């Protein structure tokens, strides 16, 4: 069924079938119900609820609040400062311009913040999240996620799972996340801070003078888990490999299999950071 709004503030309700809903003008509320619906917002501030089904939603210009609900939805926030929740299902969500907040919710979602300083949260599932332009904050959530920051200065958190997290351009903070997971973190260009967390992580700074920390320094005790082996690759320029902080040594669980493997240490430009009065055992290969 085709449903079209007016120039007023409308309440538009869909049917249990597959509807096409066009909000037209002013601040509208759209509740689509079941079915594979196609929904268009407008240039004002809309509330859109896709309902069950595989919906296609375009928020239009304006600061919109969009809920995909259950189903594999395709959502484009368009222009405006939008808040988008994909709901259950494998959703594809684009924030587009401005500073958006996007929540993938349950399912294997693909999220692209596009322009603006966005906050992106994948939640459950194996998500693919890209911040793109702007200073973005990304929380991948549970699952084995793939995260890329894009340009500018991003804060990226892989959260739980075995994650691939890439800072790309800009001076980024790249964190593998709390909980045990074997993460692969890459800073790429810029002066980056890479923090692995618990698990056997691989950290690569790329270009720039980077700081690499294999464990999670915010956790009580600052220590690795038993049998944790982290691989630290500084890359180009002078990098700092942090193996301790305060009075704590990170790799000290009374087990010789806990260690950091630094593959490209350059004595002329790189640094190892440890607590004062620390004895260190090291091996050269």
TrEMBL record:
<dbReference type="GO" id="GO:0005509">
    <property type="term" value="F:calcium ion binding"/>
</dbReference>
<keyword id="KW-0964">Secreted</keyword>
<dbReference type="InterPro" id="IPR050557">
    <property type="entry name" value="RTX_toxin/Mannuronan_C5-epim"/>
</dbReference>
<dbReference type="InterPro" id="IPR018511">
    <property type="entry name" value="Hemolysin-typ_Ca-bd_CS"/>
</dbReference>
<dbReference type="InterPro" id="IPR011049">
    <property type="entry name" value="Serralysin-like_metalloprot_C"/>
</dbReference>
<dbReference type="Pfam" id="PF00353">
    <property type="entry name" value="HemolysinCabind"/>
</dbReference>
<dbReference type="GO" id="GO:0005576">
    <property type="term" value="C:extracellular region"/>
</dbReference>
<dbReference type="InterPro" id="IPR001343">
    <property type="entry name" value="Hemolysn_Ca-bd"/>
</dbReference>
<protein>
    <submittedName>
        <fullName>Ca2+-binding protein, RTX toxin-related</fullName>
    </submittedName>
</protein>
């Amino acid at each position: 069924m085709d449903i079209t709004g007016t120039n007023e503030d409308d309440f538009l309700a869909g049917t249990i079938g597959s509807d096409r809903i066009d909000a037209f003008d002013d601040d509208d509320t759209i509740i689509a119900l079941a079915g594979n619906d196609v929904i268009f917002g407008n240039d004002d501030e809309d509330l859109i609820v896709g309902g069950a089904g595989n919906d296609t939603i375009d928020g239009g210009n304006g600061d919109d609040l969009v809920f995909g609900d259950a189903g594999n939805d395709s959502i484009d926030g368009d222009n405006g400062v939008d808040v988008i929740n994909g709901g259950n299902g494998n959703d594809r969500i684009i924030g587009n311009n401005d500073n958006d907040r996007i929540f993938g919710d349950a399912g294997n979602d693909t999220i692209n913040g596009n322009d603006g300083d966005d906050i992106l949260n994948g939640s459950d599932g194996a998500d693919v999240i890209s911040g793109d332009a702007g200073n973005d904050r990304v929380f991948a959530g549970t699952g084995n996620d793939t995260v890329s920051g894009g340009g500018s200065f991003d804060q990226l958190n892989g959260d739980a799972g075995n994650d691939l997290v890439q800072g790309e351009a800009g001076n980024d903070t790249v964190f593998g996340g709390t909980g045990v997971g074997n993460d692969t973190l890459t800073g790429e260009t810029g002066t980056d801070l890479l923090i692995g967390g618990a698990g056997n992580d691989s950290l690569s700074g790329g270009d720039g003078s980077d700081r690499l920390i294999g464990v999670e320094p915010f956790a009580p005790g600052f220590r690795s888990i038993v049998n944790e082996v982290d691989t630290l690759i500084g890359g180009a320029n002078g990098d700092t490999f942090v193996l301790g902080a305060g009075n704590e040594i990170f790799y000290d669980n009374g087990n010789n299999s806990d260690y950091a493997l630094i593959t490209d240490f350059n004595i002329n430009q790189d640094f190892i950071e440890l607590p004062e009065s620390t004895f260190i055992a090291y091996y050269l290969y």
